Amino acid sequence: MSIYGMKFGDVGNEIVSKSLRTALDFEKDFNGWKFIQFSQEHTEIPIFAVTAYLFFVFYFPGQMVHRSAWKGTSSMLTVALWNLGLAAFSLCGALRMAPFLLTKVHEEGFRWTVCTDPGDWYINGPVGFWMMAFIFSKIPELMDTVWLVLKKKPVIFLHWFHHLTVLLYCWHSYVNRIGPGIWFGAMNYCVHAIMYFYYFLATVPSLRKLARPMAQLITTVQILQMVVGSTVTVASAWYVYVGGAASCHVNSANWKMGLAMYLSYLVLFCVLFIDKYLPKDKTGRDKAEICGVEVNAKQVDRAGFFHTDENKGSNADLRSAKKRK
Prior knowledge:
- The protein is mainly α and 325 residues long.
- The chain contains 14 helices and four strands.
- The strands form two sheets. The chain has a two-stranded antiparallel ribbon.
- A hairpin with a 2-residue loop joins β3 and β4 (293-297).
Protein backbone atom coordinates (compact mmCIF):
# COMPACT_ATOMS: atom_id res chain seq x y z
CA MET A 1 0.00 0.00 0.00
CA SER A 2 1.34 3.44 -0.92
CA ILE A 3 0.34 7.03 -0.25
CA TYR A 4 1.46 9.58 -2.89
CA GLY A 5 4.27 7.26 -3.93
CA MET A 6 5.37 6.45 -0.39
CA LYS A 7 4.84 3.02 1.12
CA PHE A 8 2.73 2.76 4.25
CA GLY A 9 5.78 1.74 6.26
CA ASP A 10 7.66 4.85 5.13
CA VAL A 11 4.72 7.09 6.01
CA GLY A 12 4.33 5.42 9.39
CA ASN A 13 8.03 5.69 10.16
CA GLU A 14 7.99 9.36 9.25
CA ILE A 15 5.01 10.03 11.52
CA VAL A 16 6.57 8.11 14.40
CA SER A 17 9.89 9.84 13.82
CA LYS A 18 8.27 13.28 13.98
CA SER A 19 6.31 12.25 17.07
CA LEU A 20 9.47 11.15 18.86
CA ARG A 21 11.36 14.29 17.78
CA THR A 22 8.69 16.47 19.36
CA ALA A 23 8.74 14.48 22.61
CA LEU A 24 9.70 16.46 25.68
CA ASP A 25 12.70 15.55 27.80
CA PHE A 26 10.60 14.03 30.58
CA GLU A 27 8.97 11.73 28.01
CA LYS A 28 12.28 10.67 26.48
CA ASP A 29 13.83 10.02 29.90
CA PHE A 30 10.83 8.15 31.27
CA ASN A 31 11.64 4.91 33.12
CA GLY A 32 8.57 2.70 33.06
CA TRP A 33 10.06 -0.02 35.21
CA LYS A 34 9.83 2.20 38.30
CA PHE A 35 6.10 2.67 37.81
CA ILE A 36 5.52 -1.01 37.10
CA GLN A 37 7.34 -1.86 40.31
CA PHE A 38 5.24 0.72 42.15
CA SER A 39 2.00 -0.75 40.78
CA GLN A 40 3.15 -4.26 41.73
CA GLU A 41 3.97 -3.16 45.28
CA HIS A 42 0.72 -1.24 45.73
CA THR A 43 -2.06 -3.42 44.38
CA GLU A 44 -4.19 -2.13 47.24
CA ILE A 45 -4.58 1.27 45.54
CA PRO A 46 -7.21 0.21 42.95
CA ILE A 47 -9.06 -1.78 45.63
CA PHE A 48 -9.26 1.24 47.94
CA ALA A 49 -10.22 3.49 45.02
CA VAL A 50 -13.02 1.18 43.88
CA THR A 51 -14.33 0.73 47.43
CA ALA A 52 -14.49 4.48 47.97
CA TYR A 53 -16.04 4.92 44.53
CA LEU A 54 -18.85 2.42 45.16
CA PHE A 55 -19.54 4.00 48.54
CA PHE A 56 -19.82 7.38 46.85
CA VAL A 57 -22.04 6.10 44.02
CA PHE A 58 -24.58 4.42 46.28
CA TYR A 59 -24.44 6.61 49.40
CA PHE A 60 -23.93 10.22 48.39
CA PRO A 61 -26.94 10.58 46.05
CA GLY A 62 -29.12 9.97 49.11
CA GLN A 63 -27.29 12.73 50.96
CA MET A 64 -28.08 15.13 48.13
CA VAL A 65 -31.86 14.77 48.50
CA HIS A 66 -32.22 17.83 50.72
CA ARG A 67 -29.42 19.79 49.09
CA SER A 68 -29.56 22.03 46.06
CA ALA A 69 -28.17 20.69 42.82
CA TRP A 70 -24.92 22.18 41.58
CA LYS A 71 -26.02 24.41 38.72
CA GLY A 72 -25.18 27.65 37.03
CA THR A 73 -22.07 29.04 35.41
CA SER A 74 -19.65 27.48 37.88
CA SER A 75 -21.04 24.02 37.18
CA MET A 76 -20.97 24.49 33.44
CA LEU A 77 -17.43 25.91 33.34
CA THR A 78 -15.99 23.27 35.67
CA VAL A 79 -17.43 20.32 33.75
CA ALA A 80 -16.63 21.91 30.38
CA LEU A 81 -12.98 22.53 31.30
CA TRP A 82 -12.74 19.04 32.79
CA ASN A 83 -13.99 17.45 29.58
CA LEU A 84 -11.80 19.67 27.40
CA GLY A 85 -8.78 18.82 29.53
CA LEU A 86 -9.41 15.08 29.22
CA ALA A 87 -9.93 15.47 25.47
CA ALA A 88 -6.56 17.23 25.11
CA PHE A 89 -4.87 14.66 27.36
CA SER A 90 -6.33 11.79 25.33
CA LEU A 91 -5.34 13.40 22.04
CA CYS A 92 -1.73 13.69 23.19
CA GLY A 93 -1.72 10.03 24.20
CA ALA A 94 -3.32 8.99 20.91
CA LEU A 95 -0.74 10.89 18.85
CA ARG A 96 2.11 9.22 20.71
CA MET A 97 0.77 5.66 20.81
CA ALA A 98 -1.44 5.03 17.76
CA PRO A 99 1.13 5.81 15.00
CA PHE A 100 3.77 3.83 16.90
CA LEU A 101 1.48 0.80 17.20
CA LEU A 102 0.30 0.86 13.58
CA THR A 103 3.87 1.13 12.31
CA LYS A 104 4.90 -1.87 14.39
CA VAL A 105 1.92 -3.84 13.08
CA HIS A 106 3.09 -3.12 9.55
CA GLU A 107 6.74 -3.92 10.27
CA GLU A 108 6.46 -6.87 12.65
CA GLY A 109 2.91 -8.15 12.21
CA PHE A 110 -0.19 -8.24 14.37
CA ARG A 111 0.88 -11.24 16.44
CA TRP A 112 4.18 -9.59 17.37
CA THR A 113 2.41 -6.52 18.77
CA VAL A 114 0.01 -8.70 20.76
CA CYS A 115 2.47 -11.22 22.16
CA THR A 116 5.79 -9.42 22.64
CA ASP A 117 6.77 -8.45 26.18
CA PRO A 118 6.23 -4.67 26.49
CA GLY A 119 9.57 -4.54 28.30
CA ASP A 120 11.24 -5.37 24.99
CA TRP A 121 9.83 -2.47 22.98
CA TYR A 122 7.93 0.36 24.70
CA ILE A 123 8.03 0.30 28.53
CA ASN A 124 10.44 3.26 28.57
CA GLY A 125 10.43 6.50 26.60
CA PRO A 126 7.50 8.54 25.22
CA VAL A 127 5.19 5.60 24.48
CA GLY A 128 5.94 4.10 27.89
CA PHE A 129 5.11 7.40 29.56
CA TRP A 130 1.73 7.63 27.88
CA MET A 131 0.96 4.01 28.67
CA MET A 132 1.66 4.75 32.34
CA ALA A 133 -0.47 7.90 32.13
CA PHE A 134 -3.29 5.86 30.62
CA ILE A 135 -3.21 3.39 33.51
CA PHE A 136 -3.10 5.92 36.33
CA SER A 137 -5.59 8.31 34.68
CA LYS A 138 -8.38 5.87 35.43
CA ILE A 139 -8.40 7.05 39.04
CA PRO A 140 -8.93 10.80 38.42
CA GLU A 141 -11.44 9.93 35.68
CA LEU A 142 -13.75 8.82 38.49
CA MET A 143 -14.46 12.54 38.88
CA ASP A 144 -16.88 12.11 35.97
CA THR A 145 -19.23 10.53 38.50
CA VAL A 146 -18.70 13.24 41.12
CA TRP A 147 -20.03 15.88 38.71
CA LEU A 148 -23.19 13.82 38.12
CA VAL A 149 -23.89 13.35 41.82
CA LEU A 150 -23.27 17.01 42.67
CA LYS A 151 -25.68 17.98 39.90
CA LYS A 152 -28.21 15.45 41.28
CA LYS A 153 -28.19 13.47 38.06
CA PRO A 154 -28.62 9.68 37.93
CA VAL A 155 -25.51 7.54 37.67
CA ILE A 156 -26.55 4.83 35.21
CA PHE A 157 -25.24 1.28 35.48
CA LEU A 158 -23.13 1.51 32.31
CA HIS A 159 -21.38 4.60 33.69
CA TRP A 160 -20.23 3.30 37.07
CA PHE A 161 -19.67 -0.29 35.88
CA HIS A 162 -17.41 0.97 33.09
CA HIS A 163 -15.34 3.21 35.38
CA LEU A 164 -14.98 0.53 38.03
CA THR A 165 -13.98 -2.39 35.81
CA VAL A 166 -11.62 -0.38 33.60
CA LEU A 167 -9.69 0.84 36.64
CA LEU A 168 -9.25 -2.67 38.03
CA TYR A 169 -8.40 -4.24 34.68
CA CYS A 170 -5.89 -1.58 33.67
CA TRP A 171 -3.99 -1.86 36.95
CA HIS A 172 -3.89 -5.66 36.68
CA SER A 173 -2.67 -5.40 33.08
CA TYR A 174 0.12 -2.99 33.99
CA VAL A 175 1.25 -5.14 36.90
CA ASN A 176 1.52 -8.18 34.59
CA ARG A 177 2.92 -6.29 31.57
CA ILE A 178 0.48 -7.97 29.18
CA GLY A 179 1.39 -7.91 25.50
CA PRO A 180 -1.90 -6.52 24.10
CA GLY A 181 -1.86 -3.59 26.55
CA ILE A 182 -0.66 -1.11 23.94
CA TRP A 183 -3.71 -1.95 21.80
CA PHE A 184 -6.09 -1.17 24.64
CA GLY A 185 -4.27 2.04 25.58
CA ALA A 186 -4.04 3.37 22.03
CA MET A 187 -7.70 2.61 21.29
CA ASN A 188 -8.86 4.16 24.54
CA TYR A 189 -6.92 7.36 23.91
CA CYS A 190 -8.33 7.69 20.38
CA VAL A 191 -11.92 7.12 21.45
CA HIS A 192 -11.66 9.34 24.54
CA ALA A 193 -10.17 12.20 22.51
CA ILE A 194 -13.35 12.26 20.43
CA MET A 195 -15.72 11.40 23.26
CA TYR A 196 -14.58 14.01 25.76
CA PHE A 197 -14.46 16.70 23.09
CA TYR A 198 -18.07 15.82 22.31
CA TYR A 199 -18.89 16.10 26.02
CA PHE A 200 -17.18 19.50 26.08
CA LEU A 201 -19.29 20.76 23.17
CA ALA A 202 -22.47 19.34 24.70
CA THR A 203 -21.75 21.00 28.06
CA VAL A 204 -21.45 24.54 26.68
CA PRO A 205 -24.93 25.83 25.67
CA SER A 206 -23.64 27.90 22.75
CA LEU A 207 -21.77 24.89 21.33
CA ARG A 208 -24.37 22.21 22.00
CA LYS A 209 -25.78 22.31 18.48
CA LEU A 210 -22.35 21.25 17.18
CA ALA A 211 -22.40 18.18 19.42
CA ARG A 212 -25.78 16.77 18.40
CA PRO A 213 -24.66 15.35 15.03
CA MET A 214 -21.77 13.57 16.80
CA ALA A 215 -23.85 11.65 19.34
CA GLN A 216 -24.56 8.58 17.23
CA LEU A 217 -20.98 8.53 15.94
CA ILE A 218 -19.62 8.46 19.51
CA THR A 219 -21.65 5.39 20.50
CA THR A 220 -20.77 3.69 17.20
CA VAL A 221 -17.05 4.27 17.77
CA GLN A 222 -17.37 2.93 21.32
CA ILE A 223 -19.03 -0.24 20.00
CA LEU A 224 -16.24 -0.62 17.44
CA GLN A 225 -13.69 -0.25 20.24
CA MET A 226 -15.31 -3.13 22.12
CA VAL A 227 -15.31 -5.30 19.00
CA VAL A 228 -11.61 -4.68 18.39
CA GLY A 229 -10.79 -5.12 22.08
CA SER A 230 -12.61 -8.46 22.16
CA THR A 231 -10.86 -9.57 18.98
CA VAL A 232 -7.40 -8.70 20.28
CA THR A 233 -8.11 -10.47 23.56
CA VAL A 234 -9.37 -13.62 21.84
CA ALA A 235 -6.35 -13.55 19.51
CA SER A 236 -3.94 -13.40 22.45
CA ALA A 237 -5.69 -16.35 24.09
CA TRP A 238 -5.59 -18.29 20.82
CA TYR A 239 -1.86 -17.70 20.40
CA VAL A 240 -1.28 -19.08 23.90
CA TYR A 241 -3.51 -22.07 23.18
CA VAL A 242 -1.71 -22.90 19.93
CA GLY A 243 1.87 -22.09 20.89
CA GLY A 244 1.89 -22.49 24.65
CA ALA A 245 2.25 -19.94 27.45
CA ALA A 246 5.81 -19.04 26.44
CA SER A 247 4.71 -18.04 22.92
CA CYS A 248 2.68 -15.00 23.98
CA HIS A 249 3.25 -12.61 26.88
CA VAL A 250 -0.30 -12.79 28.22
CA ASN A 251 -1.56 -13.46 31.73
CA SER A 252 -4.21 -16.21 31.80
CA ALA A 253 -6.43 -14.51 34.37
CA ASN A 254 -6.02 -11.17 32.60
CA TRP A 255 -7.25 -12.27 29.19
CA LYS A 256 -10.25 -14.01 30.75
CA MET A 257 -11.19 -10.89 32.71
CA GLY A 258 -10.49 -8.74 29.67
CA LEU A 259 -12.76 -10.79 27.43
CA ALA A 260 -15.57 -10.76 29.99
CA MET A 261 -15.15 -7.00 30.35
CA TYR A 262 -15.10 -6.21 26.63
CA LEU A 263 -18.04 -8.49 25.84
CA SER A 264 -20.13 -6.97 28.65
CA TYR A 265 -19.31 -3.48 27.35
CA LEU A 266 -20.22 -4.57 23.84
CA VAL A 267 -23.64 -5.76 24.96
CA LEU A 268 -24.30 -2.68 27.10
CA PHE A 269 -23.24 -0.20 24.42
CA CYS A 270 -25.31 -2.03 21.80
CA VAL A 271 -28.34 -1.80 24.10
CA LEU A 272 -27.59 1.88 24.66
CA PHE A 273 -27.37 2.44 20.89
CA ILE A 274 -30.70 0.67 20.30
CA ASP A 275 -32.48 2.59 23.05
CA LYS A 276 -31.05 5.97 22.02
CA TYR A 277 -31.16 5.78 18.24
CA LEU A 278 -33.60 3.00 17.33
CA PRO A 279 -36.57 3.74 19.62
CA LYS A 280 -39.82 1.90 19.04
CA ASP A 281 -41.78 4.70 20.66
CA LYS A 282 -40.57 8.21 19.98
CA THR A 283 -42.93 9.77 22.50
CA GLY A 284 -42.36 10.39 26.17
CA ARG A 285 -38.57 10.61 25.91
CA ASP A 286 -36.83 11.95 29.02
CA LYS A 287 -33.44 13.52 29.48
CA ALA A 288 -30.53 11.71 31.07
CA GLU A 289 -26.86 12.46 31.51
CA ILE A 290 -23.67 10.51 30.94
CA CYS A 291 -20.42 12.03 32.22
CA GLY A 292 -22.22 15.28 33.01
CA VAL A 293 -23.66 15.64 29.51
CA GLU A 294 -27.35 15.57 28.71
CA VAL A 295 -28.49 12.95 26.21
CA ASN A 296 -31.90 11.78 25.06
CA ALA A 297 -33.03 8.35 26.19
CA LYS A 298 -36.09 6.48 27.40
CA GLN A 299 -36.95 6.66 31.08
CA VAL A 300 -35.89 3.05 31.68
CA ASP A 301 -34.18 1.13 28.91
CA ARG A 302 -33.86 -2.61 28.39
CA ALA A 303 -30.49 -2.76 30.15
CA GLY A 304 -32.14 -1.56 33.34
CA PHE A 305 -30.42 1.83 33.29
CA PHE A 306 -32.01 4.59 35.34
CA HIS A 307 -32.89 7.77 33.49
CA THR A 308 -34.60 10.97 34.55
CA ASP A 309 -35.13 14.55 33.50
CA GLU A 310 -34.23 17.83 35.21
CA ASN A 311 -37.67 18.23 36.73
CA LYS A 312 -37.80 14.76 38.28
CA GLY A 313 -34.39 14.83 40.00
CA SER A 314 -32.12 11.93 40.88
CA ASN A 315 -32.83 8.31 41.71
CA ALA A 316 -32.44 9.11 45.38
CA ASP A 317 -35.03 11.89 45.06
CA LEU A 318 -37.49 9.49 43.46
CA ARG A 319 -36.99 6.89 46.18
CA SER A 320 -37.42 9.56 48.85
CA ALA A 321 -40.61 10.82 47.26
CA LYS A 322 -42.07 7.32 47.20
CA LYS A 323 -41.32 6.87 50.89
CA ARG A 324 -43.05 10.16 51.77
CA LYS A 325 -46.17 8.95 49.96
